[in-house]
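Sample intake — Enoyl-CoA hydratase
Collected from: Dactylellina haptotyla
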Amino acid sequence: MPQTYSYEHYNVTFPQDGIAVVEINRAEALNAFTESMIVNIGKIFNQLSTDSDCRAIVLTGAGDKAFTAGLDIKKANLAGSGKTVDPARKMISELRPMLMSLQNAVTQAERCLKPVISVLHGYSFGMAIDLSTATDIRICTEDVKLSVKEVDIGLAADVGSLSRLVKVVGSMSWVKDICYTARIFGAEEALKQGLVTAVYKDKKEALEGALKLAELIASKSPVAVQSSKELLNYSVDHSVEDGLRYTAAWNPGALQTIDIPAAIKGSLTRSKPRFEKL
């Protein structure tokens, strides 16, 4: 039986075989995130990770105005409860567990076994950077307005941007520039710095581009694609030697897949191979 997805403020659909589209669905609030929405998107990625009907994921935001305007500061509980307690105890028992729960939810996009493509459009502030840098591929529209917005509300970004941005792009100077100033930058600068890999005219064209890319990924061996994600993510935080050793430990199992002879046969006969679900 196909899995079902029922999460408030999210639409999860399968418009094509093997492709899931996750839509942040709170357009009336510019798709701003509440704490429960952050927790739930982690649950969605965790569920898709083991859904055999899913081979690639497209992440987008409802409406034309925003991918997400970031955290809904009207509903955010940034300081925890109003109880008068020892600040150290409040940190250990309340604030740190809350923050780690949100960090873990965002990280599920990175941990998800399936490749995730973010389609950034309109206002893409704060959580948009946290979340999209945890995904595998980012594309955007010409009208996108990007910002690591957190310093404008008096805090350092704390659920992913400061840890991932410098690994996604090549310039620490640029990363510090946008994180210290919270300035808004656009598609051209994002492409130049390597934050995104493609820029499309509008959201419609960007979604079409993302679906074509997802379709291509989904047509490949799921063993090969998901192994590649595992090995690439491992290599980000390890030396070349460590990466090679991990590959040598992983691939002897993956090399036994029936997908290899199917792929080779397809290449030799110039036919499109079909790969079984995991």
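Post-analysis note: The first helix runs from residue 35 to 49.
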